[in-house]
Amino acid sequence: MSTPSSGIITGISGPVIRAFIHAPVKMFEVAYVGKSKLLGEVIRIQEEYVDIQVYEDTGGVAKGEPVSFTGELLAVDLGPGILSSVLDGIGRPLKVLGKDNIYLQKGIHLATIDFKKKWHFIPLVKAGDRVESGSFLGYVIEGSYLRHTIMAPPGTRSSTVLWVASEGEYTVEERICHLDTGEELSMKQRWEVRHARPVLNRLPFDKPLLTGQRILDTLFPIAIGGAAVLPGGFGTGKTVTQQSLAKWCNADIIVYIGCGERGNEMTEVLEEFPELTDPFHDAPLMERMVLIANTSNMPVAAREASIYLGMTLAEYFRDMGYNVAIMADSTSRWAEALREIGGRLEEMPGEEGYPAYLGTRLAQYYERAGRATLLGFPEREGSVTVINAVSPPGGDFSEPVTQASLRLSGAFWGLDKRLAQQRHFPAINWQQSYTLYDDSLAPVFEKELGPEWKKLKSYLKGMLDREKVLTDLVQLVGRDGLSEKDKWLLAQVETIKVVYLQQNAFSDIDASCSMKKQLMLLKLLHSLDDMVQGRIESGLLYDQITDFPLRVELLRLREVSEKDMEQRYELWLKNFDAKLNSLVVVPE
Fold first, then answer.
1. Residue-range domain boundaries for the chain
2. What is the CATH number of domain 6-73?
3. Is the entire prediction scored with pTM above 0.90?
4. What does the alpha-carbon distance between residue 355 and residue 342 come to, in Å, rounded to a whole number?
5. DSSP strand pairing (253-259 vs 289-294)
6. What is the three-class DSSP state of 367?
7. With contact defined as beta carbons under 8 Å apart, do 553 and 572 qualify?
8. Residues 6+ apart with CB under 8 A from 389
9. 493, containing H or E segment
10. Could you tell me if 95 and 33 are in contact, meaning their C-beta atoms sit under 8 angstroms apart?
11. Which fold has domain 114-187?
12. pLDDT per residue over 346-371, tens digit each?
Protein backbone atom coordinates (compact mmCIF):
# COMPACT_ATOMS: atom_id res chain seq x y z
CA MET A 1 0.00 0.00 0.00
CA SER A 2 1.33 3.41 -0.96
CA THR A 3 1.96 6.11 1.66
CA PRO A 4 -1.07 8.44 1.91
CA SER A 5 -0.53 11.90 0.45
CA SER A 6 -2.12 15.29 1.10
CA GLY A 7 -3.04 18.39 -0.85
CA ILE A 8 -4.71 21.81 -0.87
CA ILE A 9 -7.96 22.79 -2.64
CA THR A 10 -7.29 25.23 -5.46
CA GLY A 11 -10.63 25.17 -7.31
CA ILE A 12 -14.24 24.07 -6.91
CA SER A 13 -16.81 23.37 -9.64
CA GLY A 14 -19.88 21.72 -8.12
CA PRO A 15 -18.99 18.11 -7.23
CA VAL A 16 -15.54 18.43 -8.86
CA ILE A 17 -12.65 19.68 -6.73
CA ARG A 18 -9.18 20.61 -8.01
CA ALA A 19 -6.31 20.18 -5.57
CA PHE A 20 -2.54 20.75 -5.52
CA ILE A 21 -0.80 17.58 -4.28
CA HIS A 22 2.44 17.18 -2.37
CA ALA A 23 3.16 13.59 -3.46
CA PRO A 24 1.97 11.19 -6.19
CA VAL A 25 -1.55 9.73 -5.99
CA LYS A 26 -3.36 6.98 -7.94
CA MET A 27 -6.30 7.19 -10.32
CA PHE A 28 -9.55 6.53 -8.46
CA GLU A 29 -7.80 6.88 -5.10
CA VAL A 30 -10.17 7.82 -2.28
CA ALA A 31 -9.70 11.27 -0.78
CA TYR A 32 -11.20 13.22 2.13
CA VAL A 33 -11.95 16.75 1.02
CA GLY A 34 -12.03 19.90 3.14
CA LYS A 35 -12.48 20.39 6.85
CA SER A 36 -15.68 18.31 6.72
CA LYS A 37 -13.73 15.36 5.25
CA LEU A 38 -16.16 14.79 2.39
CA LEU A 39 -15.61 11.49 0.60
CA GLY A 40 -14.22 11.80 -2.95
CA GLU A 41 -12.29 9.95 -5.62
CA VAL A 42 -9.47 11.03 -7.94
CA ILE A 43 -10.70 11.09 -11.55
CA ARG A 44 -7.90 13.01 -13.30
CA ILE A 45 -4.19 13.67 -12.65
CA GLN A 46 -2.33 16.53 -14.34
CA GLU A 47 1.24 16.95 -13.11
CA GLU A 48 0.96 18.29 -9.54
CA TYR A 49 -2.80 18.88 -9.75
CA VAL A 50 -5.64 16.37 -9.42
CA ASP A 51 -9.39 16.54 -10.00
CA ILE A 52 -11.58 14.82 -7.43
CA GLN A 53 -15.25 13.94 -7.79
CA VAL A 54 -16.90 14.35 -4.40
CA TYR A 55 -19.71 12.02 -3.38
CA GLU A 56 -21.32 14.55 -1.04
CA ASP A 57 -22.65 18.11 -1.31
CA THR A 58 -19.69 20.50 -1.65
CA GLY A 59 -21.64 23.52 -0.37
CA GLY A 60 -19.48 25.44 2.15
CA VAL A 61 -16.15 23.98 1.02
CA ALA A 62 -13.56 26.75 0.50
CA LYS A 63 -10.37 27.18 -1.47
CA GLY A 64 -7.28 26.49 0.64
CA GLU A 65 -8.88 23.74 2.73
CA PRO A 66 -6.88 20.50 3.08
CA VAL A 67 -7.30 17.26 1.12
CA SER A 68 -6.03 13.96 2.47
CA PHE A 69 -5.58 10.85 0.34
CA THR A 70 -6.04 7.34 1.74
CA GLY A 71 -3.85 5.35 -0.64
CA GLU A 72 -6.84 3.04 -1.29
CA LEU A 73 -9.40 2.81 -4.07
CA LEU A 74 -13.15 3.04 -3.40
CA ALA A 75 -14.06 -0.21 -1.67
CA VAL A 76 -16.91 -1.77 0.27
CA ASP A 77 -16.97 -4.04 3.34
CA LEU A 78 -18.63 -7.38 2.56
CA GLY A 79 -19.98 -9.76 5.16
CA PRO A 80 -23.05 -10.76 7.18
CA GLY A 81 -25.55 -7.93 7.59
CA ILE A 82 -25.73 -6.74 3.97
CA LEU A 83 -29.10 -8.35 3.21
CA SER A 84 -32.22 -6.34 4.15
CA SER A 85 -30.16 -3.16 4.24
CA VAL A 86 -30.88 0.14 2.49
CA LEU A 87 -27.68 1.87 1.38
CA ASP A 88 -26.84 5.17 -0.27
CA GLY A 89 -24.78 5.35 -3.47
CA ILE A 90 -21.46 4.83 -1.69
CA GLY A 91 -22.55 2.05 0.65
CA ARG A 92 -23.53 3.90 3.82
CA PRO A 93 -26.62 2.50 5.59
CA LEU A 94 -29.37 5.13 5.30
CA LYS A 95 -31.04 3.97 8.51
CA VAL A 96 -27.96 4.97 10.49
CA LEU A 97 -27.28 8.08 8.39
CA GLY A 98 -30.77 9.44 9.01
CA LYS A 99 -31.02 8.42 12.65
CA ASP A 100 -30.42 11.86 14.16
CA ASN A 101 -31.49 14.17 11.34
CA ILE A 102 -34.05 14.17 8.52
CA TYR A 103 -31.29 15.42 6.20
CA LEU A 104 -28.20 13.40 5.33
CA GLN A 105 -25.25 14.80 7.23
CA LYS A 106 -22.00 15.51 5.41
CA GLY A 107 -18.64 13.98 6.23
CA ILE A 108 -20.12 10.94 7.95
CA HIS A 109 -18.14 7.79 7.13
CA LEU A 110 -19.97 4.57 7.92
CA ALA A 111 -19.27 0.93 7.12
CA THR A 112 -21.79 -0.99 5.03
CA ILE A 113 -22.15 -3.61 7.76
CA ASP A 114 -22.35 -3.46 11.55
CA PHE A 115 -18.96 -4.32 13.09
CA LYS A 116 -20.42 -4.74 16.60
CA LYS A 117 -23.23 -7.20 15.90
CA LYS A 118 -22.49 -10.83 16.72
CA TRP A 119 -23.39 -13.66 14.33
CA HIS A 120 -23.73 -17.37 15.02
CA PHE A 121 -20.84 -18.85 13.01
CA ILE A 122 -20.88 -22.53 12.00
CA PRO A 123 -17.56 -23.82 10.59
CA LEU A 124 -17.39 -25.94 7.41
CA VAL A 125 -13.63 -26.66 7.56
CA LYS A 126 -11.33 -28.11 10.19
CA ALA A 127 -7.62 -27.98 10.98
CA GLY A 128 -5.63 -29.69 8.22
CA ASP A 129 -8.07 -28.88 5.40
CA ARG A 130 -6.78 -27.16 2.26
CA VAL A 131 -8.38 -23.87 1.30
CA GLU A 132 -7.79 -21.31 -1.43
CA SER A 133 -9.38 -18.18 -2.83
CA GLY A 134 -13.18 -18.56 -2.68
CA SER A 135 -13.24 -21.67 -0.48
CA PHE A 136 -16.05 -21.97 2.07
CA LEU A 137 -14.92 -21.56 5.67
CA GLY A 138 -18.31 -21.60 7.39
CA TYR A 139 -21.65 -19.86 7.35
CA VAL A 140 -24.14 -17.81 9.32
CA ILE A 141 -27.91 -17.64 8.87
CA GLU A 142 -29.22 -14.22 7.89
CA GLY A 143 -32.88 -13.55 8.53
CA SER A 144 -34.97 -16.67 8.92
CA TYR A 145 -33.46 -18.98 6.33
CA LEU A 146 -30.74 -17.62 4.02
CA ARG A 147 -27.28 -19.11 4.38
CA HIS A 148 -24.62 -16.41 4.19
CA THR A 149 -21.43 -18.30 3.44
CA ILE A 150 -18.10 -17.06 4.77
CA MET A 151 -15.47 -17.45 2.04
CA ALA A 152 -11.72 -17.03 1.80
CA PRO A 153 -11.35 -13.67 0.01
CA PRO A 154 -10.05 -13.44 -3.58
CA GLY A 155 -6.26 -13.50 -3.57
CA THR A 156 -5.97 -16.06 -0.75
CA ARG A 157 -3.14 -18.46 -1.59
CA SER A 158 -3.67 -22.23 -1.50
CA SER A 159 -2.88 -23.12 2.10
CA THR A 160 -3.66 -25.36 5.05
CA VAL A 161 -6.00 -24.46 7.90
CA LEU A 162 -4.11 -24.41 11.20
CA TRP A 163 -7.04 -23.30 13.33
CA VAL A 164 -10.72 -22.54 12.82
CA ALA A 165 -13.11 -21.02 15.32
CA SER A 166 -15.61 -23.36 16.94
CA GLU A 167 -19.33 -22.81 16.50
CA GLY A 168 -20.39 -19.72 18.37
CA GLU A 169 -21.08 -15.98 18.38
CA TYR A 170 -18.56 -13.68 16.69
CA THR A 171 -18.43 -10.18 15.25
CA VAL A 172 -17.44 -9.75 11.60
CA GLU A 173 -13.97 -8.49 12.61
CA GLU A 174 -13.05 -11.33 14.98
CA ARG A 175 -10.62 -13.95 13.72
CA ILE A 176 -12.33 -17.18 12.64
CA CYS A 177 -9.53 -18.93 10.71
CA HIS A 178 -5.72 -19.06 10.77
CA LEU A 179 -3.76 -20.40 7.76
CA ASP A 180 -0.25 -21.80 7.53
CA THR A 181 0.72 -18.86 5.31
CA GLY A 182 0.21 -16.59 8.32
CA GLU A 183 -3.07 -15.17 7.04
CA GLU A 184 -5.82 -14.61 9.59
CA LEU A 185 -9.34 -14.46 8.20
CA SER A 186 -12.51 -12.94 9.62
CA MET A 187 -16.10 -12.92 8.39
CA LYS A 188 -15.49 -9.54 6.75
CA GLN A 189 -13.70 -8.93 3.49
CA ARG A 190 -13.14 -5.72 1.55
CA TRP A 191 -13.39 -5.31 -2.23
CA GLU A 192 -12.79 -2.43 -4.64
CA VAL A 193 -16.11 -1.68 -6.35
CA ARG A 194 -14.70 -0.84 -9.80
CA HIS A 195 -12.91 -4.20 -10.14
CA ALA A 196 -14.78 -7.39 -11.08
CA ARG A 197 -14.42 -10.30 -8.66
CA PRO A 198 -12.68 -13.25 -10.36
CA VAL A 199 -14.37 -16.50 -11.50
CA LEU A 200 -13.02 -19.84 -12.71
CA ASN A 201 -14.76 -19.87 -16.12
CA ARG A 202 -17.88 -18.64 -17.87
CA LEU A 203 -20.87 -20.89 -18.61
CA PRO A 204 -23.39 -20.80 -21.50
CA PHE A 205 -26.83 -19.21 -21.25
CA ASP A 206 -28.95 -22.35 -20.97
CA LYS A 207 -31.15 -21.68 -17.92
CA PRO A 208 -34.07 -19.22 -17.97
CA LEU A 209 -34.65 -16.47 -15.45
CA LEU A 210 -38.41 -16.78 -14.96
CA THR A 211 -39.96 -13.38 -14.36
CA GLY A 212 -43.62 -14.30 -13.87
CA GLN A 213 -44.52 -11.85 -16.65
CA ARG A 214 -46.25 -13.67 -19.50
CA ILE A 215 -45.07 -11.45 -22.35
CA LEU A 216 -41.45 -11.77 -21.21
CA ASP A 217 -41.33 -15.47 -20.34
CA THR A 218 -43.21 -16.48 -23.50
CA LEU A 219 -41.98 -14.11 -26.19
CA PHE A 220 -38.77 -12.50 -24.90
CA PRO A 221 -37.17 -14.73 -22.24
CA ILE A 222 -33.88 -13.85 -20.57
CA ALA A 223 -31.27 -16.39 -19.49
CA ILE A 224 -29.80 -16.59 -16.01
CA GLY A 225 -26.60 -14.57 -16.23
CA GLY A 226 -27.89 -12.57 -19.19
CA ALA A 227 -28.56 -8.87 -19.61
CA ALA A 228 -31.77 -7.09 -20.53
CA VAL A 229 -32.49 -3.44 -21.20
CA LEU A 230 -35.90 -1.91 -20.48
CA PRO A 231 -36.18 1.46 -22.24
CA GLY A 232 -39.25 3.65 -22.17
CA GLY A 233 -40.39 7.25 -21.98
CA PHE A 234 -41.98 8.95 -19.00
CA GLY A 235 -45.09 7.15 -17.73
CA THR A 236 -44.59 3.89 -19.63
CA GLY A 237 -44.17 1.78 -16.47
CA LYS A 238 -40.42 1.13 -16.21
CA THR A 239 -40.37 1.35 -12.43
CA VAL A 240 -43.49 -0.79 -11.87
CA THR A 241 -42.18 -3.42 -14.31
CA GLN A 242 -38.80 -3.58 -12.57
CA GLN A 243 -40.45 -3.76 -9.17
CA SER A 244 -42.63 -6.64 -10.41
CA LEU A 245 -39.50 -8.43 -11.64
CA ALA A 246 -37.80 -7.84 -8.30
CA LYS A 247 -40.77 -9.35 -6.46
CA TRP A 248 -41.47 -12.32 -8.69
CA CYS A 249 -38.38 -13.44 -10.61
CA ASN A 250 -36.79 -16.71 -9.50
CA ALA A 251 -33.39 -15.22 -8.56
CA ASP A 252 -32.07 -16.10 -5.10
CA ILE A 253 -30.90 -12.55 -4.29
CA ILE A 254 -32.13 -9.19 -5.61
CA VAL A 255 -30.01 -6.02 -5.69
CA TYR A 256 -32.23 -3.05 -6.56
CA ILE A 257 -30.59 0.28 -7.40
CA GLY A 258 -32.68 3.46 -7.49
CA CYS A 259 -30.19 5.43 -9.55
CA GLY A 260 -31.19 9.09 -9.86
CA GLU A 261 -34.94 8.43 -9.89
CA ARG A 262 -37.60 10.58 -8.24
CA GLY A 263 -37.69 10.49 -4.46
CA ASN A 264 -41.40 9.58 -4.28
CA GLU A 265 -40.79 6.45 -6.41
CA MET A 266 -37.96 5.34 -4.15
CA THR A 267 -40.13 6.07 -1.11
CA GLU A 268 -42.77 3.68 -2.48
CA VAL A 269 -40.11 0.99 -2.83
CA LEU A 270 -38.79 1.58 0.69
CA GLU A 271 -42.30 1.46 2.16
CA GLU A 272 -43.72 -1.37 0.06
CA PHE A 273 -40.91 -3.93 -0.14
CA PRO A 274 -40.54 -4.49 3.64
CA GLU A 275 -44.28 -5.35 3.73
CA LEU A 276 -44.08 -7.97 0.97
CA THR A 277 -43.81 -11.71 1.52
CA ASP A 278 -41.30 -13.70 -0.52
CA PRO A 279 -43.34 -15.88 -2.94
CA PHE A 280 -40.71 -18.66 -2.73
CA HIS A 281 -40.19 -18.69 1.05
CA ASP A 282 -42.43 -18.02 4.00
CA ALA A 283 -40.42 -14.93 4.94
CA PRO A 284 -40.30 -11.19 4.21
CA LEU A 285 -39.07 -10.35 0.70
CA MET A 286 -36.43 -7.97 2.10
CA GLU A 287 -34.56 -10.93 3.61
CA ARG A 288 -33.14 -11.66 0.15
CA MET A 289 -32.81 -8.06 -1.07
CA VAL A 290 -30.42 -5.13 -0.90
CA LEU A 291 -31.74 -1.68 -1.80
CA ILE A 292 -29.42 1.11 -2.96
CA ALA A 293 -31.20 4.46 -2.88
CA ASN A 294 -29.66 7.37 -4.73
CA THR A 295 -32.47 9.75 -5.66
CA SER A 296 -32.29 12.65 -8.11
CA ASN A 297 -31.68 15.22 -5.34
CA MET A 298 -28.70 13.33 -3.88
CA PRO A 299 -25.13 14.22 -4.92
CA VAL A 300 -24.64 13.43 -8.60
CA ALA A 301 -21.21 11.83 -8.21
CA ALA A 302 -22.58 9.20 -5.81
CA ARG A 303 -25.03 8.23 -8.56
CA GLU A 304 -22.08 7.34 -10.77
CA ALA A 305 -20.65 5.06 -8.06
CA SER A 306 -23.96 3.40 -7.11
CA ILE A 307 -24.10 0.89 -10.00
CA TYR A 308 -20.54 -0.32 -9.28
CA LEU A 309 -21.47 -0.75 -5.62
CA GLY A 310 -24.56 -2.75 -6.60
CA MET A 311 -22.59 -4.95 -8.99
CA THR A 312 -19.94 -5.68 -6.35
CA LEU A 313 -22.63 -6.76 -3.85
CA ALA A 314 -24.19 -8.95 -6.57
CA GLU A 315 -20.82 -10.60 -7.36
CA TYR A 316 -20.24 -11.26 -3.66
CA PHE A 317 -23.46 -13.26 -3.36
CA ARG A 318 -22.80 -14.91 -6.73
CA ASP A 319 -19.54 -16.23 -5.29
CA MET A 320 -21.58 -18.08 -2.66
CA GLY A 321 -23.33 -19.99 -5.47
CA TYR A 322 -26.49 -17.88 -5.67
CA ASN A 323 -28.29 -16.59 -8.74
CA VAL A 324 -28.44 -12.82 -8.31
CA ALA A 325 -30.53 -10.32 -10.26
CA ILE A 326 -29.41 -6.70 -10.27
CA MET A 327 -31.84 -4.01 -11.37
CA ALA A 328 -30.83 -0.40 -11.97
CA ASP A 329 -33.48 2.28 -12.47
CA SER A 330 -32.17 3.92 -14.52
CA THR A 331 -28.84 3.93 -16.35
CA SER A 332 -29.87 7.13 -18.17
CA ARG A 333 -29.58 9.02 -14.88
CA TRP A 334 -26.21 7.39 -14.31
CA ALA A 335 -25.10 8.53 -17.78
CA GLU A 336 -26.34 12.04 -16.99
CA ALA A 337 -24.04 12.02 -13.96
CA LEU A 338 -21.13 11.11 -16.26
CA ARG A 339 -22.14 13.94 -18.58
CA GLU A 340 -22.31 16.50 -15.79
CA ILE A 341 -18.95 15.55 -14.34
CA GLY A 342 -17.41 15.43 -17.83
CA GLY A 343 -18.71 18.93 -18.49
CA ARG A 344 -17.17 20.26 -15.28
CA LEU A 345 -13.86 18.66 -16.29
CA GLU A 346 -14.18 20.44 -19.68
CA GLU A 347 -13.86 17.15 -21.53
CA MET A 348 -14.63 17.01 -25.24
CA PRO A 349 -18.30 15.95 -25.45
CA GLY A 350 -19.53 13.13 -27.63
CA GLU A 351 -23.01 12.56 -29.03
CA GLU A 352 -25.70 14.62 -27.24
CA GLY A 353 -23.09 15.87 -24.79
CA TYR A 354 -22.34 12.48 -23.25
CA PRO A 355 -18.64 11.73 -22.75
CA ALA A 356 -16.88 9.81 -25.52
CA TYR A 357 -16.18 6.94 -23.09
CA LEU A 358 -19.89 6.33 -22.33
CA GLY A 359 -19.91 3.01 -24.23
CA THR A 360 -16.74 1.84 -22.49
CA ARG A 361 -18.11 2.58 -19.02
CA LEU A 362 -21.37 0.80 -19.82
CA ALA A 363 -19.43 -2.20 -21.14
CA GLN A 364 -17.36 -2.38 -17.93
CA TYR A 365 -20.63 -2.70 -16.03
CA TYR A 366 -22.57 -5.06 -18.33
CA GLU A 367 -19.62 -7.43 -18.82
CA ARG A 368 -19.58 -8.19 -15.11
CA ALA A 369 -22.87 -10.05 -15.58
CA GLY A 370 -22.82 -13.73 -16.48
CA ARG A 371 -23.10 -17.29 -15.24
CA ALA A 372 -19.88 -18.91 -14.08
CA THR A 373 -18.19 -21.69 -12.16
CA LEU A 374 -16.56 -20.16 -9.12
CA LEU A 375 -13.22 -20.27 -7.38
CA GLY A 376 -12.54 -22.48 -4.37
CA PHE A 377 -14.17 -25.47 -2.70
CA PRO A 378 -16.79 -26.85 -3.05
CA GLU A 379 -17.39 -26.72 -6.81
CA ARG A 380 -20.41 -24.53 -7.55
CA GLU A 381 -22.06 -22.21 -10.03
CA GLY A 382 -23.42 -18.71 -9.58
CA SER A 383 -24.72 -15.92 -11.75
CA VAL A 384 -25.43 -12.21 -12.00
CA THR A 385 -28.32 -11.21 -14.26
CA VAL A 386 -28.63 -7.54 -15.22
CA ILE A 387 -31.98 -5.86 -15.93
CA ASN A 388 -31.51 -2.14 -16.52
CA ALA A 389 -34.13 0.50 -17.16
CA VAL A 390 -33.27 3.31 -19.59
CA SER A 391 -35.14 6.63 -19.73
CA PRO A 392 -34.57 8.00 -23.25
CA PRO A 393 -35.69 11.65 -23.57
CA GLY A 394 -39.02 11.76 -25.38
CA GLY A 395 -38.99 7.97 -25.72
CA ASP A 396 -36.41 8.21 -28.52
CA PHE A 397 -34.67 4.81 -28.68
CA SER A 398 -32.03 6.18 -31.07
CA GLU A 399 -30.36 8.25 -28.33
CA PRO A 400 -26.83 7.21 -27.19
CA VAL A 401 -27.56 5.48 -23.85
CA THR A 402 -30.25 3.21 -25.32
CA GLN A 403 -28.13 2.36 -28.36
CA ALA A 404 -25.02 1.63 -26.26
CA SER A 405 -27.12 -0.55 -23.93
CA LEU A 406 -28.59 -2.45 -26.89
CA ARG A 407 -25.14 -3.43 -28.12
CA LEU A 408 -24.29 -4.89 -24.71
CA SER A 409 -27.52 -6.69 -23.77
CA GLY A 410 -29.18 -9.86 -25.03
CA ALA A 411 -32.81 -8.88 -24.48
CA PHE A 412 -34.58 -5.67 -25.45
CA TRP A 413 -37.94 -5.01 -23.79
CA GLY A 414 -39.10 -1.79 -25.41
CA LEU A 415 -41.88 0.05 -23.58
CA ASP A 416 -44.45 1.82 -25.75
CA LYS A 417 -46.09 5.10 -24.70
CA ARG A 418 -49.07 4.38 -26.98
CA LEU A 419 -49.77 1.11 -25.13
CA ALA A 420 -49.36 2.85 -21.76
CA GLN A 421 -51.90 5.49 -22.79
CA GLN A 422 -54.31 2.66 -23.63
CA ARG A 423 -53.73 1.31 -20.08
CA HIS A 424 -52.09 -1.80 -21.51
CA PHE A 425 -49.51 -2.90 -18.91
CA PRO A 426 -46.81 -4.07 -19.01
CA ALA A 427 -46.56 -1.73 -22.01
CA ILE A 428 -43.94 -3.83 -23.80
CA ASN A 429 -44.11 -3.45 -27.56
CA TRP A 430 -44.06 -6.97 -29.02
CA GLN A 431 -43.10 -5.68 -32.47
CA GLN A 432 -40.01 -3.73 -31.31
CA SER A 433 -38.78 -6.06 -28.56
CA TYR A 434 -36.52 -9.06 -29.10
CA THR A 435 -34.32 -11.60 -27.31
CA LEU A 436 -31.10 -13.33 -28.31
CA TYR A 437 -31.58 -16.12 -25.75
CA ASP A 438 -34.52 -17.83 -27.48
CA ASP A 439 -32.56 -20.60 -29.22
CA SER A 440 -30.43 -21.49 -26.18
CA LEU A 441 -33.48 -21.64 -23.86
CA ALA A 442 -35.86 -23.46 -26.23
CA PRO A 443 -34.69 -26.99 -25.20
CA VAL A 444 -35.25 -26.13 -21.52
CA PHE A 445 -38.82 -24.93 -22.09
CA GLU A 446 -39.56 -27.92 -24.32
CA LYS A 447 -38.29 -30.30 -21.66
CA GLU A 448 -40.32 -28.63 -18.89
CA LEU A 449 -43.53 -27.88 -20.83
CA GLY A 450 -43.53 -30.43 -23.62
CA PRO A 451 -43.27 -30.13 -27.42
CA GLU A 452 -46.61 -28.27 -27.67
CA TRP A 453 -45.01 -25.18 -26.08
CA LYS A 454 -43.13 -24.41 -29.29
CA LYS A 455 -46.31 -24.79 -31.34
CA LEU A 456 -48.31 -22.53 -29.01
CA LYS A 457 -45.58 -19.91 -28.96
CA SER A 458 -45.52 -19.90 -32.78
CA TYR A 459 -49.31 -19.52 -32.75
CA LEU A 460 -49.05 -16.48 -30.45
CA LYS A 461 -46.35 -14.84 -32.59
CA GLY A 462 -48.31 -15.58 -35.77
CA MET A 463 -51.49 -14.00 -34.41
CA LEU A 464 -49.65 -10.85 -33.28
CA ASP A 465 -47.94 -10.56 -36.66
CA ARG A 466 -51.29 -10.98 -38.42
CA GLU A 467 -52.82 -8.10 -36.44
CA LYS A 468 -50.90 -5.48 -38.44
CA VAL A 469 -52.08 -6.92 -41.77
CA LEU A 470 -55.71 -7.02 -40.60
CA THR A 471 -55.54 -3.52 -39.10
CA ASP A 472 -54.21 -2.14 -42.38
CA LEU A 473 -57.01 -3.98 -44.22
CA VAL A 474 -59.67 -2.49 -41.91
CA GLN A 475 -58.39 1.01 -42.70
CA LEU A 476 -58.87 0.28 -46.41
CA VAL A 477 -62.21 -1.55 -46.53
CA GLY A 478 -63.68 -1.03 -43.05
CA ARG A 479 -64.49 -3.75 -40.52
CA ASP A 480 -67.70 -4.67 -42.39
CA GLY A 481 -65.65 -5.38 -45.52
CA LEU A 482 -63.72 -8.18 -43.80
CA SER A 483 -64.59 -11.83 -44.20
CA GLU A 484 -66.29 -13.58 -41.27
CA LYS A 485 -63.04 -15.39 -40.51
CA ASP A 486 -60.97 -12.18 -40.57
CA LYS A 487 -63.48 -10.48 -38.29
CA TRP A 488 -63.00 -13.28 -35.78
CA LEU A 489 -59.20 -13.25 -36.10
CA LEU A 490 -59.07 -9.51 -35.44
CA ALA A 491 -61.26 -9.98 -32.35
CA GLN A 492 -59.14 -12.94 -31.22
CA VAL A 493 -55.94 -10.89 -31.42
CA GLU A 494 -57.56 -8.24 -29.20
CA THR A 495 -58.58 -10.99 -26.78
CA ILE A 496 -55.01 -12.33 -26.70
CA LYS A 497 -53.67 -8.85 -25.99
CA VAL A 498 -56.14 -8.25 -23.15
CA VAL A 499 -56.15 -11.72 -21.60
CA TYR A 500 -52.56 -12.90 -22.18
CA LEU A 501 -50.23 -9.97 -22.80
CA GLN A 502 -51.74 -7.64 -20.22
CA GLN A 503 -51.03 -8.41 -16.59
CA ASN A 504 -52.26 -6.82 -13.37
CA ALA A 505 -49.28 -5.99 -11.15
CA PHE A 506 -51.64 -5.24 -8.24
CA SER A 507 -53.53 -8.55 -8.34
CA ASP A 508 -52.55 -11.15 -5.76
CA ILE A 509 -52.93 -13.93 -8.36
CA ASP A 510 -52.22 -12.32 -11.73
CA ALA A 511 -49.16 -10.31 -10.67
CA SER A 512 -47.07 -13.41 -11.38
CA CYS A 513 -47.88 -16.28 -13.74
CA SER A 514 -46.10 -19.63 -13.61
CA MET A 515 -44.93 -21.29 -16.81
CA LYS A 516 -47.47 -24.09 -16.35
CA LYS A 517 -50.30 -21.55 -16.09
CA GLN A 518 -48.96 -19.71 -19.15
CA LEU A 519 -49.08 -23.01 -21.03
CA MET A 520 -52.70 -23.61 -19.99
CA LEU A 521 -53.75 -20.07 -20.94
CA LEU A 522 -52.18 -20.42 -24.38
CA LYS A 523 -53.78 -23.83 -24.90
CA LEU A 524 -57.12 -22.34 -23.93
CA LEU A 525 -56.80 -19.46 -26.40
CA HIS A 526 -55.57 -21.74 -29.18
CA SER A 527 -58.38 -24.28 -28.62
CA LEU A 528 -60.93 -21.45 -28.55
CA ASP A 529 -59.60 -20.18 -31.88
CA ASP A 530 -59.76 -23.64 -33.47
CA MET A 531 -63.35 -24.14 -32.28
CA VAL A 532 -64.64 -20.83 -33.60
CA GLN A 533 -62.78 -21.02 -36.92
CA GLY A 534 -64.17 -24.51 -37.47
CA ARG A 535 -67.73 -23.30 -36.84
CA ILE A 536 -67.26 -20.23 -39.08
CA GLU A 537 -66.08 -22.50 -41.90
CA SER A 538 -69.32 -24.44 -41.38
CA GLY A 539 -71.36 -21.26 -41.93
CA LEU A 540 -71.53 -19.57 -38.51
CA LEU A 541 -71.51 -15.75 -38.61
CA TYR A 542 -69.09 -13.73 -36.49
CA ASP A 543 -71.96 -11.52 -35.19
CA GLN A 544 -73.54 -14.62 -33.63
CA ILE A 545 -70.52 -15.02 -31.36
CA THR A 546 -70.33 -11.40 -30.19
CA ASP A 547 -73.16 -11.97 -27.69
CA PHE A 548 -70.90 -14.25 -25.66
CA PRO A 549 -68.96 -12.36 -22.92
CA LEU A 550 -65.77 -14.14 -23.96
CA ARG A 551 -63.18 -11.71 -22.61
CA VAL A 552 -64.97 -11.26 -19.29
CA GLU A 553 -65.09 -15.02 -18.76
CA LEU A 554 -61.46 -15.48 -19.81
CA LEU A 555 -60.32 -12.67 -17.50
CA ARG A 556 -62.15 -14.34 -14.62
CA LEU A 557 -60.49 -17.62 -15.48
CA ARG A 558 -57.10 -15.88 -15.58
CA GLU A 559 -57.62 -14.72 -11.99
CA VAL A 560 -57.83 -18.25 -10.55
CA SER A 561 -54.88 -20.14 -9.12
CA GLU A 562 -52.84 -22.57 -11.19
CA LYS A 563 -54.40 -25.55 -9.43
CA ASP A 564 -57.97 -24.31 -9.96
CA MET A 565 -57.28 -23.40 -13.57
CA GLU A 566 -56.04 -26.91 -14.27
CA GLN A 567 -59.43 -28.21 -13.16
CA ARG A 568 -61.57 -25.54 -14.78
CA TYR A 569 -60.18 -24.68 -18.21
CA GLU A 570 -61.13 -28.01 -19.84
CA LEU A 571 -64.64 -27.65 -18.40
CA TRP A 572 -64.87 -24.09 -19.74
CA LEU A 573 -63.90 -25.24 -23.24
CA LYS A 574 -66.46 -28.03 -23.08
CA ASN A 575 -69.23 -25.59 -22.05
CA PHE A 576 -68.22 -23.10 -24.74
CA ASP A 577 -68.24 -25.82 -27.38
CA ALA A 578 -71.78 -26.69 -26.31
CA LYS A 579 -72.81 -23.02 -26.70
CA LEU A 580 -71.34 -22.91 -30.20
CA ASN A 581 -73.18 -26.07 -31.17
CA SER A 582 -76.46 -24.53 -30.00
CA LEU A 583 -76.14 -21.69 -32.51
CA VAL A 584 -77.99 -21.94 -35.81
CA VAL A 585 -75.69 -22.08 -38.82
CA VAL A 586 -76.80 -19.72 -41.59
CA PRO A 587 -77.09 -21.65 -44.91
CA GLU A 588 -75.04 -20.24 -47.80
1. 6-73, 114-187, 201-430, 450-582
2. 2.40.30.20
3. yes
4. 6
5. parallel
6. coil
7. yes
8. 230, 231, 232, 238, 239, 241, 242, 327, 328, 329, 330, 331, 332
9. helix 484-496
10. no
11. OB fold (Dihydrolipoamide Acetyltransferase, E2P) (2.40.50)
12. 888 889 999 999 999 999 999 999 99
